[in-house]
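User: Structure please.
Assistant: Input sequence and predicted structure:
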Amino acid sequence: MVVEHRLSVQRSCKCIGLSRAAYYNSMKAELNRDAEVIAAINAVLERHPRWGFWKCYKALRKKKYHWNHKRVYRVYCQMRLNQKRRAKRKLPKRLRQPLMVPQRPNHVWSADFVSDALYAGNRFRTFNVIDDFNREVVAIEIDTSLTAKRLIRVFERLQLTRGLPDVLRVDNGPEFLSSEFVTWAESVGMLIQYIQPGEPNQNAYIERFNRTYREEVLNLYLFESLAEVRETTYWWMIDYNEDRPHDALGDLTPAEYMEQNAGTSTLQLST
């Protein structure tokens, strides 16, 4: 403004909103002004690369540097050293529950997630649900993202076709812990039984099923699309429930075991 338009310093500063004091002061480059602070921080972190800000600042104070913590933290952030610390998720205390075989269908279901990838590298997840009574595959939902809302839609479809379980045994995944899913489960009278963190053996039925599903489907084929995964899984579910003998069921299929124990199940339900 001063050179090109030949205005006075006062009018030029007023036009661009700059104080005359700032104009007359000698300008220091930001990098040069904090060069000493940057060098001091680098010297500390070169020896202790895993130290956080406060340890680094205290080390600088011991070396008789006079900068206050505000300036050091500003430079520290400009150097992109303030990485977020991943806080450990706090879970309520879980009680160990005995893993018993239910005596009737729709009493206890187990659910869990399995992760895999397409041939092109795109990740996807499967949400697996089985009935612990006869190890029947109740549902396998497949998509790149499975949120709590998606889980609710899955159970609402199952509610229309075969009803809902009295108890749903799951781990402590964020989908199962979400307030939306927990509130919905309470509204339909489905009790959510959480296993203890780090104890997958407490959900052994679904863990064993996940292994079978991975060995016989996910690891056996190279899928190019989610449509292929869904179609292959659909026909495999029919074979698993109706043709595949199960060791824990006396070499019966889940469908045969259900038919064989239909009378007992009906009697227990009426009782």
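The chain has 13 helices and five strands.
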